[in-house]
Structure formats: C-alpha cells, structure tokens
Amino acid sequence: MADATTSSSKSRSPGSTNVDEKHRTWSVSPSTVVYHFGTSGISVAAATGITHPLDVLKVRLQMQLVGQRGPLLGMGQLFIQVVKNEGPGSLYLGVTPALTRSILYGGLRLGLYEPSKYVSEQVFGCTNIFVKIASGAFSGAVSTTLTNPIEVLKVRLQMNPKMNRGAFGEMRSIAAEEGVKALWKGVGPAMTRAAALTASQLATYDESKQLLIKWTPLEEGFYLHLISSTIAGILSTLVTAPVDMIKTRLMLQRESKIAGIYRSGFHCAYKVMATEGPKALYKGGFAIFARLGPQTTITFILCEKLRKMVGLDAI
C-alpha cells in the first residue's frame, strides 16, 4: 500500500517501493487486523448494496437465449420487463447472500492484497506492477474459493423470483438435491474471475495513484481516489466480463438444461461461442460495466476514508 504522506509518495518512482522506509513500522496487531479487513469488507458491502439491482440485471442478461442465437434485450428493456412482471422488489433478489458475501469476500479480497504485497516486498526488495498483479490475483483467488457457496446461492436466488424457501432453505436444498459439491459449481471460473478482477482493480488503482501523484498536481484525497478508481473500474470490466458470464452459466446449470451440461469453464466458453456466437461472451457487458464501474469507485473512495479514520495508510 502506498504511503499516505504525499511528499514521500512523490519521491518514490512508480512501480517500486522502499521496503525499509515503508514497512519498518508496519506491524500486525489484533486491532490492525480488524481495522484492515473491516474497512475493506464494509466498503465492498456498501458498494454492493447500492449497485445490487444492476447485478440482478447482469445475471438475467447473461442467461438470455441459452444455447441459442437471436436478438437480445437491452438492459433498459430488461429493467422494464422485470419491474413490470415481478415488481421493483425483484431487483433486490439475493441481496442478503450478496451482502454477506461482500463482507467476507470483500474483506478478504482487499484485505489480503497488502499482506501479499508486503511478503513480495520482503522477498524481492521492491514492488513493481507484476508483483501487484500477482498479489491481487492471489488474494482474489483465495477469497472467492472460500466464499463460492454464497455466490452460488446468490445467483440462484436472483434467477428465481418465486422462490420462497429463503437463503438458508435454498442452500440446504442445493446440498440435499445436488450434493455439497454443487455449492462449489463454477469455482474454477469464479477463481479466475476474482483473480483477474482483483489483480486488474487493485494493481491498476495502486499504480494509477502512483503515476498521478508523480506526474500531476494531484495529492492524496478525493479527486485522486476518484480518477484512479474510475480507471480501475473500466479496465477490470473489460478483463472480467467474459469470465463472469461463464461463471454465471456454470452456477446456473440447473436452469440451463437446454444447453446441456458444461463440463468445465473452457467447455462452457466453447459451447457459448459455438451456439450463441463469440459476442455472447459479453452478454450483460454493459450491465457489468454499469455496476462494476460505480462499485469500484464507491469501494475505493469509501475504503480510503475509513482507513484514514482508523489511522491506516492509504491504499
């Protein structure tokens, strides 16, 4: 994580970090751990709650014309259709597991980035963009592996407006009817997506801040965080949209019998391109951007504010 003092940040070349200068005072205490993971989890949960309707629309868009080619509904048309047929409340289907996952997954995903980068700094003596990408990929993959059952539950609820079992009832039903392994459906693409998302988000945000501090008059504060998080949101959307669509399809295979059984993420990608066309990998792409862009911005701006409040360095 970059030092909060702008003068030292400006003197540091982008892509490198002085380990002795930066981490000599870095210590692990119970309060630091709580603040570190807590600020990350709260930030992601707040952003998720605000953008959840877009997540519901994204999942619905990704499940259009499974195994078929044809004209697709746009996000605006789908929004009107969902509200008209299912009511406004349907835009918050699955919000409970989404918020639960956000606190756990978000706390781990952002929270593990700093320790991962710290270890790399100790081993290699500096932090370049490749170390940042690797640190982000590691934290994203680990966090999504641990929280995949909640993600499966969330997308199932988002696709079933008439479900009355509730979150815990649906989780028991999945385990009983499809086996406990079903709770880890799509974990491979989910790990890939989380690794790509976290690496592109955090590494881009981290690197953008350093470059902006070095080459522009911007200093640590709202405008720096806003611009850096916007850049990170755009890049992460482009990188993760196809993997996100594949992950959704795998998690919802029970609802996708018309397309047959996807044996793996690669098999799913092949079948989607063969039956629906290459562009199908970006189904829901605009909804992903409309959600992930603001979510990234809200997450980082709020996280920076919370970290400042509890005495942690800026990201």
TrEMBL record:
Pfam families, alphabetized: Mito_carr (PF00153)
Record Gene3D superfamilies: Mitochondrial carrier domain (1.50.40.10)
Residue stretches of biased makeup (Low complexity): 1-17
Domain of life according to the entry: Eukaryota
Keyword Ion transport among record annotations: no
Membrane topology summary: Multi-pass membrane protein
Alphabetized UniProt keyword annotations: Membrane, Repeat, Transmembrane, Transmembrane helix, Transport
Membrane-spanning parts: 222-243
Entry GO MF terms: transmembrane transporter activity
Chain positions of Solcar repeats: 31-119, 127-211, 220-309
Family membership noted in the UniProt record: Belongs to the mitochondrial carrier (TC 2.A.29) family.
Record PANTHER family: MITOCHONDRIAL DICARBOXYLATE CARRIER-RELATED
Protein name, UniProt field: Mitochondrial substrate/solute carrier
Lineage start: Eukaryota, Viridiplantae, Streptophyta, Embryophyta, Tracheophyta
